[in-house]
Amino acid sequence: MPRQARKMSESGFYHVMIRGNNKEYIFESPQDKGKFMKIFKEKIESNDVSIAAYCLMGNHFHLVAKAEIEELADFMKKITVSYASYYNLNRDRVGHVFQGRFRSETIETSQYLLGVVRYVHRNPIEAGLVERIEDWPWSSYTEYIAKSRLLDNQVKESVAALFGSTKGFKEIHRDWDNNEYMDIPEVMKKRRKIRANGIYQEMLTQEGLSKEDMKNADKHKIYDFASKLIKVYGFTQKETSEIMGVGRGFVEWAVKK
User: How many CB atoms lie within 10 A of CB 139?
Assistant: First the structure.
């Protein structure tokens, strides 16, 4: 079966992600992370790819870059091949190190670019690895506060302008947002659940209700809430049932209305 062609970005910006094969932690030790970052730096210097943000985690890597899609694909191939060679040699193993091709999504608006950069930098916070973003040494967060090491200065300036100032950059990075971003499935599922509960709580607050109130609410009120979660916010029937703590029958009826 032929590979599906990658969608091309009109803005030139892409959010890219690679992860370990079989969910393995292939960047577990400081030595592994250091080696990957060394390879990453070497390939930046020899390829026409402008880096806007990055974050290296234990089993995956996020990148925001501006490039032609063919150049980006070549860049990622060189990185993964080099690191896989190191990883297998270092552990006396053979076989795949990364899970398939790199994943990518296009970034077409300034608002989404801001959100993706913030999300990439907040990965260690949301994973509970550090209490402060600046304490994670394997991301580009501090490059926006101080001197660039791997970021393209022109791209960095254009992204930094979206945050208004260094103070604005720091403040916006403290905030959670309800958007969904490309990530490994386990993280996306967890984030989606948090997002769903947050939206449901906002809906309750607007109506002056609590989750306890909904247990004894009129069935039509339950239908209305369930219908909005599904039709407006795009949650599945199963997710809606779990969020609201009601039976699937209520949810299925809400969809039919």
Answer: 20
